[in-house]
């Protein structure tokens, strides 16, 4: 069988074209991912700086001011310092669990950012089960903390890991019930659909006004999930030295530090998406979304304004957990579990039943 040279050239050119398409496809997948990771990194640095400045203002002292203008580079300097510090391993601990634990905590939280819409259709993965995927992924993080505590071969660390697991289980259930109520109101579990459902009635269409009880429960549960004061029992320094972080040093300790702020940022972003209208902003008599064409495809300026509105709402909301840290005293472990199981769980169940009943009556 004789094959003409022109046919061979056509086959070679087709195969080259297909390989180029595959390369371009991989590049177009990686570019949004790296852009999102870069944005998250900058967002975490801004949160650390904001917390230090707000904390300094509350305590009437001077915050960071030497590392860069207004001390904005202080968090970056701390990260570089931890990067060059020595990593110590417990002599009788489990080295594999000790090393894997911080990575699981960070990766599970990073994956949650894939379903957050920052503007109209500007989301890494618009899934129909977006909010529940976030809950499922975020529930893996306490496993990493438990592994870290067990692998440290330290009683304080192990107690901190057990507390983290118990706290996460106790407060994930009310959190999930609140998210389920929002899904019922929006008739969808997609984060994009939830934001668009709130845009129908402007400012008064936000789920903050339709679900005030759910918003309060979500706020308390997210504070507990992020292990923020008054719920920082897993790392209570007066009782457990530093909890599951006791034996860690260097970049592994830095990963726990980053994970806590990543979790705080993702929780605030979900509050913005679920309760505060996402990228839509309505000033009385002025619809900002319509002026800048945020909800129109093909417009470049609109998505930029949408990202700015989403981040502005997120960082304004962050003032609440930062101020709470210096306002409320730490709870005891029994008080924390009682609050989750005896109060938040029944109230969130009642809120879900009321939401379901109202949706059935409106049919």
UniProtKB/TrEMBL annotation:
- Transmembrane region(s): 26-50, 97-116, 122-147, 255-280, 300-322, 343-361
Q: Which membrane topology term applies here?
A: Multi-pass membrane protein
Q: Which family does it belong to?
A: Belongs to the complex I subunit 1 family.
Q: Which InterPro entries match?
A: NADH_UbQ_OxRdtase_su1/FPO (IPR001694), NADH_UbQ_OxRdtase_su1_CS (IPR018086)
- GO CC annotations, alphabetized: chloroplast thylakoid membrane; plasma membrane
Subunit comment: NDH is composed of at least 16 different subunits, 5 of which are encoded in the nucleus.
Q: Which domain of life is it from?
A: Eukaryota
The entry's localization annotation reads: Cell membrane; Membrane; Plastid, Chloroplast thylakoid membrane
| Chain's role | NDH shuttles electrons from NAD(P)H:plastoquinone, via FMN and iron-sulfur (Fe-S) centers, to quinones in the photosynthetic chain and possibly in a chloroplast respiratory chain. The immediate electron acceptor for the enzyme in this species is believed to be plastoquinone. Couples the redox reaction to proton translocation, and thus conserves the redox energy in a proton gradient.
Q: Kindly report, in one word, the top-level EC class recorded for this enzyme.
A: translocase
**HAMAP family, A to Z:** NDH1_NuoH (MF_01350)
Q: Which reaction does it catalyse?
A: a plastoquinone + NADPH + (n+1) H(+)(in) = a plastoquinol + NADP(+) + n H(+)(out); a plastoquinone + NADH + (n+1) H(+)(in) = a plastoquinol + NAD(+) + n H(+)(out)
This protein's UniProt keywords = Chloroplast, Membrane, NAD, NADP, Plastid, Plastoquinone, Quinone, Thylakoid, Translocase, Transmembrane, Transmembrane helix
Record lineage: Eukaryota, Viridiplantae, Streptophyta, Embryophyta, Tracheophyta
Q: What is the official name of this protein in its record?
A: NAD(P)H-quinone oxidoreductase subunit 1, chloroplastic
EC number(s) on record? 7.1.1.-
What is the gene called? ndhA
Any one Gene Ontology BP term: aerobic respiration
Instruction: List the GO molecular function terms.
Output: NADH dehydrogenase activity; oxidoreductase activity, acting on NAD(P)H, quinone or similar compound as acceptor; quinone binding
């Amino acid at each position: 069988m004789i094959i003409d040279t022109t046919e061979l050239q056509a086959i070679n050119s087709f195969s080259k074209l297909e390989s180029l398409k595959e390369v371009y496809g991989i590049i177009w997948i990686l570019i949004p991912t790296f852009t999102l990771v870069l944005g998250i990194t900058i967002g975490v640095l801004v949160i650390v700086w904001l917390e230090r400045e707000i904390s300094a203002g509350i305590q009437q002292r001077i915050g960071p001011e030497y590392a860069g203008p207004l001390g904005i580079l202080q968090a970056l300097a701390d990260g570089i310092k931890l990067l060059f510090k020595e990593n110590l391993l417990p002599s009788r601990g489990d080295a594999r669990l000790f090393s894997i634990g911080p990575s699981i905590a960070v990766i599970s939280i990073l994956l949650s950012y894939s379903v957050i819409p920052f503007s109209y259709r500007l989301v890494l993965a618009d899934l129909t089960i977006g909010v529940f995927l976030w809950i499922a992924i975020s529930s893996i993080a306490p496993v990493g903390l438990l592994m870290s505590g067990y692998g440290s071969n330290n009683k304080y660390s192990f107690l901190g890991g057990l507390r983290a697991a118990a706290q996460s289980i106790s407060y994930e259930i009310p959190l999930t019930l609140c998210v389920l109520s929002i899904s019922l109101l929006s008739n969808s579990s997609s984060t994009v659909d939830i934001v668009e459902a709130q845009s129908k009635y402007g400012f008064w269409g936000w789920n903050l006004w339709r679900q005030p009880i759910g918003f309060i429960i979500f706020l308390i549960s997210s504070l507990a999930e992020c292990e923020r004061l008054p719920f920082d029992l897993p790392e209570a320094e007066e009782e457990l030295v530093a909890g599951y972080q006791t034996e860690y040093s260097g970049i592994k300790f830095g990963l726990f530090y980053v994970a806590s702020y990543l979790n705080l940022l993702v929780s605030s972003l979900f509050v913005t998406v679920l309760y505060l209208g996402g990228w839509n902003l309505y000033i009385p008599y002025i619809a900002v979304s319509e002026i800048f064409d945020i909800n129109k495809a093909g417009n470049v300026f609109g998505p930029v304004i949408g990202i700015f509105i989403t981040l502005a709402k997120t960082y304004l909301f962050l003032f609440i957990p930062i101020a709470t840290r210096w306002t409320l005293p730490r709870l005891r472990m029994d008080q924390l579990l009682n609050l989750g199981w005896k109060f938040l769980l029944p109230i969130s169940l009642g809120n879900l039943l009321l939401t379901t009943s109202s949706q059935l009556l409106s049919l």
